[in-house]
Amino acid sequence: MRNLKKQLDCYDSLPPSLRKTLANAAFDWDATLVLGALELGAAIEGVIARILEDEQRRLPIDAYVMYGPDHPRAARNVQANWLRYYHYPAKTGYWWRR
User: How far is 18 from 34, CA to CA, in rounded Å?
Assistant: First the structure.
């Protein structure tokens, strides 16, 4: 519960543009990590760009895992290291391969 309160406090202290980006993000982002980056001197625009860049990279991988490579928005092939990076199993036993 204390970690959740810390997350919410960090989120509340972020600039409005970053709060909007995090609120509309397709994936969970750690508000304490984002606030830490700002405290270290990262530019707000750079953090937003990084979040959006990561989402553009991740969406085809998620579609690949959930729907298979034939889905129109899915990557045709995903390397095992990207699956591990996004916490998916690197094995090839997905439902659409059976």
Answer: 9
